[in-house]
Amino acid sequence: MENIDITVLRQLLAWRMEGKKALLVTVVRTWGSSPRPIGSIMAMCEDSRVTGSVSGGCIEDDLIRQNTQAQALADQVPRFLRYGISADEAHRFGLPCGGTLELLLEYNPDAQSLRELIEQLSQGSLVSRQVALATGQITLMATDKPAELSLSANHLVNTFGPEYRMLIIGAGQMSEYLATMALFNGFSVTVCDPRDEYRSSWSVPGVVLDHGSPDDMVTNLKPDSRTCIVALTHDPKLDDLALLEALQTEAFYVGAIGSRRNNESRKQRMIEHFDHTHASLEKLRGPIGIYIGSKTPSEIAVSVMAEILAVKNGVQLSKQMSVAQAKTELNL
To answer: How many Å apart are CA 257 and CA 234, to the nearest integer?
Structure first.
């Protein structure tokens, strides 16, 4: 499953290539609670088709009502539109209490610029898209760091990046649940397992299934700050070497399944045999997941996915939410 931004841009390009009028909508400011973060995009065609989202649905309905007539979608410079200024409007458009958001509407974006942006994103590049507010002119600039949307008096700059990636070590049942959730959260997923008996029963489409050595897979993947690595085999011969390689990368999340005792034993092995220290292992998460009392593979996968998303989104989880801390306090 593709990154939602690329999916929106691809559909917008398809509409423009068909000669249809269309609109690109970007969330540029929010105040109070907001259903979608700054930088979120949606596209809308003159025939009322919509892809992507800027709210829970009510604002999309209003945009369709306002902008699906040919005259409304005529070529014009970008303009701003604000929703939820009053309590009545917030209620009308389904915004949370006190929520306000401001949108930038771009009319009939240039197809060639869209094509160039999609091509660069498909190649794994990180690209800043600058919109001249007075004219709608687009400038694409390669960048090496993710950045928040920026808005000045003259320009809007929204940075689009390659999709987030997840590497799972092990092709067991829990890996299938985790891979499925990662896919519908917009991650590209690779599963690595050299064991034929596990790979042969894999049943999740859309996942790259690799039979090589997990540590080699980590090296070949070249993990960056949009990559997470999860070891799920319970086999130190497979998990440990992959984790050792992962700890040397910029991956935003590195973790392994296992009990508190198993995870402590893993860290001791790494300290005794691979010259690690407690400080150098701070990045290694385990037991992974947030504590939700999970028992089954599917429930454990939910807790792991929740932790990965929290880290991805910059949410600082309390110690009480960690599996190890919660089980210690509950004497489990």
So the answer is: 7
**Angle, CA 63 vertex, CA 79 and CA 8 arms, to 5°:** 85
Distance CA 150, CA 94 (A): 26
The pLDDT mean for the chain works out to 88
Residue written as tokens 């917009």? Answer: 186
Q: Read off the tokens for 201.
A: 């029963």
How far apart, in whole angstroms, are the C-alpha atoms of residue 12 and residue 33?
Answer: 28
With bands split at pLDDT 50, 70 and 90, how would you rate the model's confidence at 255?
Answer: very high
Q: What is the pLDDT of residues 257-274, one digit of tens each?
A: 999 999 999 999 999 999
Residue owning tokens 């915004």: 95
Q: How far apart are CA 189 and CA 172, in angstroms?
A: 14
pTM: 0.73
Domain at 165-329, CATH class: alpha beta
Q: Give the start-to-end residue ranges of the domains of the chain.
A: 4-160, 165-329
